[in-house]
Each structure stands twice: as structure tokens, then as C-alpha cells.
Give the backbone structure.
Amino acid sequence: QSLPQQKLLTWLSVLECVEVFAEMGTARAWGEMARWTIIVLIQLAKAILRLLLLLWYKAGIQTSPPIVPLNREQQQPLHPQDVEGSSSGKDQTYVGKRSSRVVRSLQSTPSLQSRHWGSPQQREESQSRRAEEMNQPPTPLGLQETVAESIYIARPLLHLLSLGVWGQRSWKPWLLSAILDVSSLSLLSDLKDLNRRERAELRRRTILLLYYLLRSPFYDRYSEGRILFLLRLLADYVPGLGFVTR
């Protein structure tokens, strides 16, 4: 990735980290009108940054969060002894004469912090495989997929606009947002040969469709009563859950 693209991803990640805090802080300090103003500004800034990444830098399907958090356990480097002896794996391992089982020799045992249960060859293979997965370029998007990703990026702004036109108690913003989400996923479903990160992102977006059951006005009309009934049922008849469910 180029330096400008990395900066865009960083700013996008910062916005996603602070948007809820900014919304709550603005509402507490200046009231409801300022709260909606900061929501619109943040969503507009996020949409602009994502469109720049999509159309200018050809970033493909964008994940949330934009910068994947580092798994320090998986990215842990090899022990220096392993690195020195990586060229001669036979010196690090011992093969049982009868069982043919490969075990690590006592001389090349790493420190407790970097110890693992696989052989050095398995460790090197898994690390190289993870590095390849992380460094895979984004899948090129055609016109249909670019439109689908643009719909997904613009959906929060269109939802806010529909809330301003029809109000928070109307079904139209809920339906519009759901239709845009489903349309985007349907258009992206034809895309093949996605890398691991992009497949995980599409699965995440599909699972997030369940949140529509918890969004007003669907929640107020249908979900709330059933969820509260289930919680009361658990509180009354399942020992130990009453404290949590109440």
C-alpha cells in the first residue's frame, strides 16, 4: 500500500474508534441537534474516505475495521535459535527410529514465551502462509461489484437522509436501509476467488443483517415483546439466570 492509502486507512480507523464517543459527548454537551449534526459529519467523512479508497486506490472490498488488528500471538517471531537453525531442520528435530515421530531436540528448545507444540517446519510453514494471506492484493472489482460496494458505503448517508425526511418512527428508513444492504450483498455474491479477508468481511455483513430485528420500528412493534417474554421465562424457570436477565 502507498503512504497516502495508509493514511486514509488510519484516519478511517480513527473515525470508527471515536464516532460513538463523539456522538455521546456532543449530545451531553450541546443537545440532540448537535448530536445529529456530528453523526452526519462523521458518516459523510467516512463515506468520502471509503469512496476514495474504492475508486482512486482500487482497495476492493473494504473491511471493518479498515486496519485489521494485529494478532501478536500469531505474529510472534521465531526464536533466535530457530532462526539460526532454520536452514538445518535436522539439527532442531529428532526422528524416532521406531515411531518415526518428529520431536524438537532439547538443544533447540525456545523460551517459554515463544514456545509452541509444533515442529519448527510447521511453525515456519504456518507463518509463511499467514504472511501470504495478509499480503494478498485486493480482488479486482468489476462495474457491478464497484456499484455494490458504493451502495454499501452510501447506505448510512441515505439512511440518515430518509430519517430526516420521514422521521424516526417511519418504516421507510428501515426498509430502505435493509434493501440497500441486501442489494449490495446480492451483487457481490457473484464475485469469485476472494481472499480470506474479503470472504470474512462478506460473512460479517451477512450476519449483521440480523441486527435489523433489533432496530426500530421493527424492534418496537415485534421484537421487543418476544425478547422480554423470553427473558422473563428464563429468569423465572432457569436457576442462576435471573440476576442476569432481569
